[in-house]
Write a structure and sequence with these properties.
Blueprint: E1 22-27, E2 34-39, E3 45-50, E4 54-59, E5 66-70, E6 76-81, E7 88-92, E8 96-100, E9 108-112, E10 118-123, E11 129-134, E12 139-143, E13 148-153, E14 160-165, E15 171-176, E16 181-185, E17 190-195, E18 202-207, E19 213-218, E20 223-227, E21 232-237, E22 244-249, E23 255-260, E24 265-269, E25 274-279, E26 286-291, E27 297-302, E28 307-311, H1 319-324, E29 356-358, E30 372-375, H2 377-380, H3 392-401, H4 412-416, H5 430-436, H6 440-496
Parallel strand pairs: 5-30, 25-29
Antiparallel strand pairs: 1-28, 2-3, 3-4, 4-5, 6-7, 7-8, 8-9, 10-11, 11-12, 12-13, 14-15, 15-16, 16-17, 18-19, 19-20, 20-21, 22-23, 23-24, 24-25, 26-27, 27-28
Protein name: POC1 centriolar protein homolog B
Subcellular location: Cytoplasm, Cytoskeleton, Microtubule organizing center, Centrosome, Centriole
Main location: cytoplasm
Amino acid sequence: MPDETGQSGNLSTSSLDREDPTLARHFKGHKDAVTCSDFSPTNKQLATGSADKTLMIWNLSPKSRAFRFVGHQDVVTSVHFSPSGELVASGSRDRTVRLWTPNIKGESTLFKAHTATVRSVCFSADGQRLLTASDDKSVKVWSVHRQKFIFSLNQHTNWVRCARFSPDGRLVASCGDDRTVRLWDTSTRLCINTFTDYGGPATFVDFNSSGTCIASSGADNTLKIWDIRTNKLLQHYQVHSAAINSFSFHPSGNFLISGSSDGTVKIVDLLEGRLIYTLHGHKGPVLAVAFSREGDHFASGGSDAQVLMWKTNFDALDYREMLSRHRKRVTPDPPPHLTDIHPRSPHLHLPHSASVEINPAVTDVHSVSPHVVDVGEDLFSSVGAGRHASGITDSRERFRTSTGSASSFTRTQHQEEPREEENLRPGVSGLQEERTGTPPALRSTLEHIVQQLDILTQTVAVLEERLTLTEDKLRECLDNQAVILEQMQQQDESHGD
């Protein structure tokens, strides 16, 4: 079909105004594969989980610290922000789920959720319930505020890889290694539909923003979109050359991104029904992708332990004008879903279809990797199963030996502008020596002093953190003591009667 320039080709008229996505930031901090990611509702934080057993919260404002949460005893497999942003849920191969407060205290509540690896966690839209899926073949629903198990969904015959609430919370979609995608009614707790058209394990599932469609991916390299009202397959993409590990709908419903073991991130235009971008930024499989709540950014994480944050750009289109060119594809009744995808027979989009290849120079990203503060119960408490004490000396030594991966509260002044000692390091050119006029011995002394000051401020920060935690524990002990005294008084009164 000829475009506006009069030339025939695979690019449609809407592609002429599209801007390519660009790499915005590059986060370093995880020590092993990045397995999951999620943006906060405020778009101020990004949470990622890793095979290094930690959860990290990246604050997206410039020069902000990142927090590494320690508590899980094995790979963190899934992470999800609550709708309010006040909690972060994480699932792990250690068979537990944790609810974290995403701040410096690193407090968490432990759910002993399943008898096998927890693969997926998801909050309901109202934040009242938590959905978990596991290798124990079950999907479980929990009360967040009461922190209690409510019910299980048990019809999968193999590992359950992923489970998601519908936007209104009335449905649950789940998928797994039994090669099925199941749809559940949360009120009756029954499986109301099963999609089985898969040549391998189903790896990921999610609802679109309107809740009328679900997308699911498979180890057979396919991505499928179903209309759950008519049970029809709307679109079928085969743009990856290896298993798809994760995908995410753009909030508008017009785009979908996917991450694959082929090492690429693909972006599909759901209105045009075709692949539009292939992003090469990771060295190895891409395990996690996620759009921000506003859709202006998306993140990707991979086996290379890298977290990349991309600026979307391509979503800034006039879709009213675009839809006017596609009137024949608009569904008048019922209301459009997936922003006007007309149900049609399955079709394949082969890898050779025209798309823009983007190869960002990841090592050339100008944004500075944030300093990371280690927080969590395992670092600062010896109470509870699976926790271990970490003394002030150990913490100080950890900060001293860390090279740019740790930070303190008082180090902010060094983050906001280049440190003066960077111009005083050995190896400076003779021209710089002449300009500064500082003798080498004095430079060495000043550098040593600055290093000692860094160690001191870091140690003070650790002490402050431990003091805060100690105060909290003391307050908790006093509260418990008051309860015990009250109970003893009641017992004395009952005996006296």
